[in-house]
Amino acid sequence: MEMMHKSCEQFLEELASKAAVPGGGGGSALVGAVGTALGNMVGCLTVGKKKYAAVEPDILALNEKAAALRARLEGLVEADAEAFAPLAKAYSIPKEEPARAEIMAAALEKAAAVPLEIMECCCEAIVLLEEYEAKGSVLAVSDAGCGAVFCRAALEGAGLNVSVNTRLMADRARAEELDARVAALLKEYVPRAEAVYAKVCARLGGN
Asked: CATH number for the 21-204 domain, one of 1.20.120.680, 3.40.1010.10, 3.90.380.10, 2.115.10.20?
C-alpha cells in the first residue's frame, strides 16, 4: 500500500509530475474511495440518532459494506501502479522479438483488468449511496450527493483507463468484450449516480 501511505501532498505532486505512476487509474480509485468514504460518513452521522432508529440496522449494514469497499479501492490505487510496470517493460521489448506479442497481450490484459475492477467497485458504491441518500440523516444528505458525484467521476475515469489499453490489444474479440463491459457499466450506473445527485439537489432546494 505504498501509494496510500503517501501524504496527500506527495501523492498529488507525483500525480502532477512526469512519473509513470500514479496516473488516471490510480487517481480514479482514490476518488472512488473518497466517494465511498463520504457515504460512510453519512452512515456514521445517522447511527445513534433516535429519529433514525428504524433504519439503524440498514445503516450499520451499509457502513460495513462501505468500509470494505473503500479498502478495496485503496488497494486498487496500488494495484493500478503495479499493473503498469509490466506494460512499460513490454513496450521496451524490440518489435522483432518473437515473444513480444504474447508478453504485450498479457500486460495489456492486466493493465485493463485493474481499472475495470475500479469501475465495478464504483458501481457498488453508487448503489450504497442511493440507500444512504434515502435513509441517512438529512443533515448529511449533501455528503451523499458529493459521494455520488465523486463515484461517477471515478467510474468514468476508470473506464477511460480500460479503453486506453483495449485499443492496443491484438485480440480484437477480447478488446470488444471488455469495451462492451465498460459501456454497460457506464450506461447503467452513470444515470444512477446522476439521480442521487438530482435528489440531493431537490432536497436542498437547488436545481
From this structure: 1.20.120.680
